[in-house]
């Protein structure tokens, strides 16, 4: 169940670097506001999959549910409810602005990860 998967670890590192670059060098627009949401769920999937062996379908569904709950938390001002208003880390990680489009971006990111897994499985079975 547990073990290091270096392919997913490398993917998580690459996605993390991409997210940091977007956060540091892009202000607003599609890349920052929406593409970053696709990358964040892909990062979470890769980070978890790098240490936990699980079925991609269930992992993607769990990550999508988690991301959606965080987004709903933004709608209800979760940062404020927790008394963390003004805390830069909490506001960055949890977020403060609800956007229904973000939920679509989370779904796209999870679908991409699931599609990559299906493609990789078919490709590896073809070469056996």
Structure commentary:
This protein has helices at 6-25, 29-49, 56-75, 78-81, 88-93, 100-126. The radius of gyration is 16 Å and the shape is globular. The protein has 128 residues and is mainly alpha-helical. The chain has one domain. The chain contains six helices and no strands. Helix 2 packs across helix 3 (56-75) and helix 2 (29-49) packs across helix 6 (100-126). 77% of the residues lie in helices and 0% in strands.
In short:
This protein is mainly α and 128 residues long.
Q: Mind telling me the C-alpha Rg?
A: 16 Å
> What's the total number of strands?
0
Helix content: over 70%
Cα-to-Cα separation, first versus last residue: 24 Å
Listing every helix as H and every strand as E from the N terminus to the C terminus, the arrangement reads: HHHHHH
Largest sheet: number of strands, sense, barrel closure = none
Class computed from helices, strands and strand pairing: mainly alpha
Strand content: under 5%
Shape estimate = globular
- How many helices in DSSP terms? 6
Mean pLDDT: 93
The domain tally reads 1
Low-confidence stretches: none
């Amino acid at each position: 169940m547990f073990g290091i998967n270096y392919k997913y670890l490398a993917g998580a590192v690459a996605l993390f670097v991409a997210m940091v670059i977007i956060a540091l060098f892009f202000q607003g627009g599609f890349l920052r506001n929406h593409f970053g949401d696709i990358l964040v769920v892909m990062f979470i999937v890769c980070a978890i999959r790098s240490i936990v062996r699980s079925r991609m379908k269930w992992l993607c569904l769990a990550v999508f549910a988690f991301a959606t709950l965080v987004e709903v938390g933004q709608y209800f001002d979760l940062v404020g409810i927790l008394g963390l208003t003004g805390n830069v880390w909490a506001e960055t990680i949890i977020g403060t602005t609800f956007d229904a489009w973000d939920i679509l971006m989370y779904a796209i990111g999870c679908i991409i990860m699931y599609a990559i897994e299906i493609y990789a499985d078919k490709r590896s079975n073809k070469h056996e």
